[in-house]
User: Fold this.
Amino acid sequence: MTVGKIAKTSVDSLSKGPRDTFLWDTECKGFGVKVTPEGRRIYVLQYRMGGRTTPTRRYKIGQHGSGWTPELARREANRLLVLIAQGIDPAEEKRRRHYVASELTFSAVADRFEEKGLEGLREKTREFFKSTLRIYLRPKLGKRPLPAIQGSEIFSVLDGLSTHSPALRRNVFAVARRMMRWAKGRGIIDRNPLEGFEVPAAAPSRDRVLNDHELKLVWTASEELGAIFCGLVRLLLLTGQRRDEVAGLEWQELDRARAEWILPSARAKNGKEHLIPLSKQVIAELDALAGSASWPRKGFVLTTDGGKSRVSGFSRCKRKLDEQVRDLVEDDAAPVTAWRFHDLRRSVATGLQRLRVSSEWIEAVQNRRKAGVAGTYQRYEYADEKREALNTWGRHVARIVHDAREPRPVELADAS
Assistant:
């Protein structure tokens, strides 16, 4: 065994042999340099975890000339000896750090969360979680070890969304919190960094309702959007259903003879199959989209590729619609205040109330989950009431947009 002070000159003078050779330092116990048969010089620390009866272990500090000098290596050896005296094995600690850096990063845990932590949720909800992680959280936190992430870091991400809606900040917070709870429940982290933090402020409750004059402007302006987006806007206005439910409408969900649209549970927001009776005004719009009174048997109704995929580009559509509405407003009239597609749904509900349709019927028309009778109806429960309500609303819309073409009479099968 060769012993001597490890310094640059002594390390540089070491020659290689047919097998590993060592020079052990005289100042720092266990600190040495290994010379491989290839001539590499590697700083090491030899130690035991316990008394003399425990096996010898050897820890690689680093290679000479690759950022490591004898002085830096000795300093690191002394630091490691302090850990060893405290019962911490440097090799185990190094493996732990490597595991954390590779297997416990935010993105690595997010992958496991998406695979195991979203079981039992509806497909749309799972996609919401995945897209929120992908767009807002992974880019900022992806490489950070999850156990090291502080709540303040997550709120820094939320602060970067200050120009977005309050609802988005709450949604991102909710996704992060659920993932952290899942990770804690599986022992990946010892504590949830979002515990004790207040949920971001809720978005103000929306109560925007378009009046009849505004609905007429929207109807008229939709003519300039092209057939597909015109159909989207008018079906939203006539049916009072949710945007994505209308946008994803398929011909196979429709029955022209019975004047019915059966929204499958897989596409309904509340997971409940929903019957929407079709007014004559809705059928006229669907005839226009189909190009005749004979509707296709399959494919998406609102599509730009022959029914293969549903329509998208809602933001662009809305911007163009707003421009057309502004052009229709008289110069001396008040401008139409900001509104969203979802406000059409609220406007239909409010309009039906004005037409003296009962709240229970409106709940049924819009497929809202509600405790009690209105939350338990089956496909054809409230069918007659919903048909009467939507026919009443269709006639009302036809009156307020009197310059729109009157729908031709439609022969309907008995829907009872």
